[in-house]
Design goal:
The protein is an alpha+beta fold. It has 2 domains: 79 residues, no CATH class; 48 residues. A 4-stranded antiparallel beta sheet has the order 1-2-3-4, covered by helices on one side. The mean pLDDT is 92.
């Protein structure tokens, strides 16, 4: 039998159920004892049943939470890159393949969604520019004193 990890994390909507894996029993069966539930949004770790989490348990859970957050962040940005590709493909479709009936079906929804997105992006970019300008101004003012 291959070496199994000591912990298994069953992914849930906002985190995971954490199991300790045990193969060191008489029947050589894989036993999974749930020891905790983790919420990655608020960082809460709830021991399950009569389980008391050891320092090793906590360290493994903390490592999983850190890795999971990084994975979800990478997926989020990857989804946005795919959305950009989809917008480009949609533009090509509208220009080269779409029928009038198809365009009538999607034009208003696309225009509103793109307007909403554009408005938010312009606002966020202006905020970043102002923040950068304020930081540079504060740095210059601070360095001349």
């Amino acid at each position: 039998m291959t070496d199994l990890p000591e912990y298994y994390f069953r992914v849930r909507e906002n985190g995971a159920a954490v199991f300790r894996i045990d193969t060191e029993n008489r029947q050589r069966r894989i036993e999974m004892d749930q020891i905790a539930v983790v919420n990655i949004r608020n960082g809460e770790v709830k021991p399950q049943g009569s389980s008391e989490l050891s320092e090793r348990d906590r360290a493994e859970i903390d490592t999983w939470v850190t890795e999971r957050k990084a994975l979800l962040a990478r997926r989020d940005i990857d989804d946005i890159h795919r959305a950009v590709d989809t917008l480009n493909l949609t533009t090509q479709w509208a220009q080269a393949k779409a029928t009038d009936a198809q365009l009538d079906e999607v034009t208003d929804a696309l225009l509103l969604a793109m307007h909403d997105l554009r408005t938010m992006l312009v606002r966020k970019k202006a905020d970043r520019i102002l923040k950068t300008r304020d930081a540079e101004s504060a740095h210059i003012t601070g360095s001349t004193k």
